[in-house]
Amino acid sequence: MGSIQVSIPYGLVAFLIIFCSNFKPSFSHGKDKNTQRRIDDTHWREAVGTWYGPPTGCGSDGGACGYAKAVSEHPFNSMITAISHNLYKEGKGCGVCYQVKCKNNPCCSEKPVRVIVTDLCPECQHNHFDLSGTAFGALAKHGEEDNLRKSGKLQLEFTRVECDYSTKNVDFKIDAGSNPYYLAFVVEYAEGDGDVSKVYVRDCLAKPDDWTPMVRSWGALWKYNSPTEMRPPFSVLLKSRYSGSVLVAENVIPKDWVPGKTYASLVNFKV
After folding, report:
1. Is 219 exposed, middle or buried (0-12, 13-18, 19+ CB in 10 A)?
2. DSSP state of 169
3. How far apart are CA 91 and CA 118, in angstroms?
4. Which of 17, 41, 168, 262 maximizes the CB count within 10 A of its CB?
5. CB atoms < 10 A from the CB of 3, how many?
6. Are strands 128-132 and 45-52 parallel, antiparallel or unpaired?
7. How far is CA 197 from the centre of its chain?
8. What is the pLDDT of residues 83-118, one digit of tens each?
9. Which three-class secondary structure state does DSSP give residue 247?
10. Closest Cα to residue 73, out of 85, 86, 63, 62?
11. Coil, helix or strand for 72?
12. Please, how many CA atoms are within 13 Å of residue 241, restricted to the half-sphere of its CB?
């Protein structure tokens, strides 16, 4: 049998040579970096659990995240926790939700409960949850809440979970010191990641895509010092840390805004 010869146009040969020389194979092992971090955060890990404040209370009144009285109200409902520095992350951990469960105590139900980070425990060591009295008692078998609190300290397991505030939208609590040249507010009730990584503001004179970055002042409080007078209403853009989701609250802070007041948006991240 004779051989078969195939004639390939010179232009195609040149293309194949250039393509192959520049081709670099890329192998993906599952998820991207951010998603992988999120998966890692959902593993159950060891922790220490204590409690503070009244036995059936909300710990402190707001604490190092700046949520103030909201910690005892819906949707926090006193199911909150202070955390060690490694989880607080200089305020980046504020608003993050965890499931925690206790073990090695006969009063433990071993059923997980969800808690929200609202405070820092300055003296706590690595992976330490200093729960409100209410949240600590929720770890107990029915009727054993007081006995569990008497133990004072527990071995816990914890995992990162998404926040779900049952259809409540994001709120912006304006700092009492805010004025036309200085705007600061606490971001409350961010669903999903619960971890706001970036915040931008836009006044009514700016173009639709002209967003000004704010900086974290402390906890969940974000601020912006303006060189010129800002003109309300103000719109706010939020970006979540792990998913990278973006949320825009248009004109959420009105023309007649007042320092110290809270303004509810009409939007929230999807769970």
Report:
1. buried
2. P
3. 9
4. 41
5. 4
6. parallel
7. 8
8. 999 999 999 999 999 999 999 999 999 999 999 999
9. strand
10. 62
11. helix
12. 18
